[in-house]
């Protein structure tokens, strides 16, 4: 079985999704889905250990060697992402039975677990595959299931959010497909490693430039880079709480992974940064996104929507690291990719606990929650401080490396904008803290159940521990950078 390790984390949830239908009862589905995710996480950890020890693992599907067949290619970055996505899935699924039972009707609860497994399989497949068209297929699997998950929300606005995401997500997927098609037309292959070998012979053609532009725009739509972010705030705000938590922790991170994969493993950094104005475009959009989305977050009255806009700002930080075209910048991006998953997972699970007790996350109803839900609000505050980048949290670590990368390029104004973004984050976090801790409320104590608090606090403690002991995250990110760039950061 270990010889098939690269495919096991993907095939498990993919086969488990239709199997869920046979179980019938939501409780059985919840336990089965959690068991599948735990197994997938275990296989991902084993796979990561193998990749660290032996290097990139190439697995030809059905024994058909590339470029004729589809291959899975798991390198250090891919193995890291498999562990991250599965870990976030397990954390969300531990909390899901109570939250899903409270927010969804009985007939919709089963659909949640089936669709969740499909999203998980799609995201893991995107990470594992070494074939450009197969990446598109997995992207569509995860996207279609995500649209349906968002539409499960009890607020009627969830339908509009799902429709909006469907339209923009389809545009993004179409752009990616057109780009991949143009690359196939010029090279005759869809295998990413093979594309990297053949593209230098035709890289000066307008077709390849066009392919790069289509792929870039399509991926940026998927990762919600400003100003292509319009689908994200409503999707996070009106989706069921567990859907918001999982998407916030994984979806945009996998899209950033796809962008990095195309830059470094397909087109190559020389083409990307030398032949195209990629550096300037990403720098400008990243900086504007950090400021504009942070300002928009300050004016939100729905706390889920507030932190959704903060996710758009955080995508700006991720893009700034890529824009530096340096090993330190890529290290900062990969660190922030891990750290932001931990932050947003903790924050949206805390908001799920609030929704469980209050039924919504409107800011004006947070009055006195610091006293009525002390453990939940403490988790939200610590997660928020990590988002700000306070020393002793994971947010500080990745922002520190990002500032260093920007200073190395002598981009002092950009470094100042990063600090400004942290200040703006402190402002919108303070809005929540002020209402929760300094507004009067006569309501009774209504702390969330342990099943919701335990996974939330596991992620909160991870935010603190990995902010102090950075050994594991730095090792993972450094190995990924070395594998992509051939140099240690």
Main attributes of the structure:
489 residues; mainly alpha
What composes the largest sheet? Answer: 2 strands, antiparallel
Poorly predicted tracts of residues: none
Distance between the termini: 35 Å
Supply the helix-strand structural class.
mainly alpha
Percentage of residues assigned to helices:
over 70%
- The shape is globular
How would you briefly describe this protein structure?
With 489 residues, this protein is mostly helical. The protein is 77% helix and 2% strand.
3D structure, described in words:
The protein is an all-alpha fold and 489 residues long. It has a domain at 323-489. It contains 20 helices and two strands. The chain has helices spanning 8-20, 26-54, 76-103, 106-128, 132-151, 157-187, 192-198, 206-222, 232-238, 241-267, 269-275, 278-298, 303-323, 327-358, 369-372, 374-388, 394-408, 412-438, 450-468, 471-485, and strands spanning 57-60, 71-74. It is globular. The two termini are 35 Å apart. The model has no long low-confidence stretch (mean pLDDT 87).
Topology:
Blueprint: H1 8-20, H2 26-54, E1 57-60, E2 71-74, H3 76-103, H4 106-128, H5 132-151, H6 157-187, H7 192-198, H8 206-222, H9 232-238, H10 241-267, H11 269-275, H12 278-298, H13 303-323, H14 327-358, H15 369-372, H16 374-388, H17 394-408, H18 412-438, H19 450-468, H20 471-485
